[in-house]
Amino acid sequence: MIVANRYKMQFGMKLLLYLITVLTVVASYDQAAAKTIYVAVSNPDMSFLSGGVAKYQGYFKDEGLDVEVLQMNANVSVAALAAGNVDYNLILQSVVTANLRGLPLKIAGILIERPNHVVVAHPSIQKFSDLKGKKIAISSFGSLVDILARLTVSHFNLDPRSDVQYVAAGSSSARVAQLQAGVVQAAFVTPPGNLRAEAEGFKSLLRVRDLFPFPVNGIGVTEQKLRNNRDEVKKIVRALLRANRYIINNPKGAIKILSDWGRTKPEVAEDAYNDNAKNYSRNFLVSRSTLENVIESTRWNVESKRNVGVDEIFDFTLVREVLKEMGESPS
Questions:
Q1: I need a labelling partner for 194 at 20 to 30 A (CA). Which of 12, 206, 234, 285 fits?
Q2: Whether 241 and 318 share a structural domain
């Protein structure tokens, strides 16, 4: 009897330990599954449609991820990324700038290969060189728009430090408002800002993408997450890669999502798509020389003396792994 009772007690203890272990595993799984991942973007527009499509099409969910796409100011979003308040930041230039200033952040893939920015100007401006001595509206100093404006000024053999004056005006709509008010004679905007400007009687002078390649959005992540949670980062990369392929291959569906996500009229969304879909990357990779140009241009603009190599800011290892798993050559 004693032996039998002892056996029952031992069996009961083993069963209890087993149940505790199972419940712990299940609880841990549920906790991981319930974890919300936050992805920061500047606006729900064509520039960040990768995030919108991945959310609307369920690509994040297909990877087992609960993702929220949050709209944030660029400076706020990069601070939030560094502090761990958001998990990913798709505003490439903010991440590159922060890295040059010493923050441990990296870019894990390129979403858009060329700028989608348009220079809109007063009707009296016939060519870009006519802006010598004039004022140009940008978003903020040190931003991507600031860098693109200075590179464009240099492209037309003007001195970006002295031949034009830059006015930090905020959003694309605010830059158009500055143009309307006569405060500036030109503005760098993103679609559909150029269409709004044209509707007010201004002219689209040029598209920056026709001048030079310059990646404008990518997958920003902390070095710690890239090092310690590569599986999650890889899932994010795969979901966003699917989103980019969808944007490129499914105009009708992408336009519908852009209209719904950005709360814009379908015809405006269609114009924005037609203007910019060709800038989206199919494989998240660009040439090393292009990345070197991004770093050097940013260093020059923010007056950073920190010398860093491409691999210290850009890590496309997981992109190449995903492409290889898809049977594609990561060239």
A1: 285
A2: yes
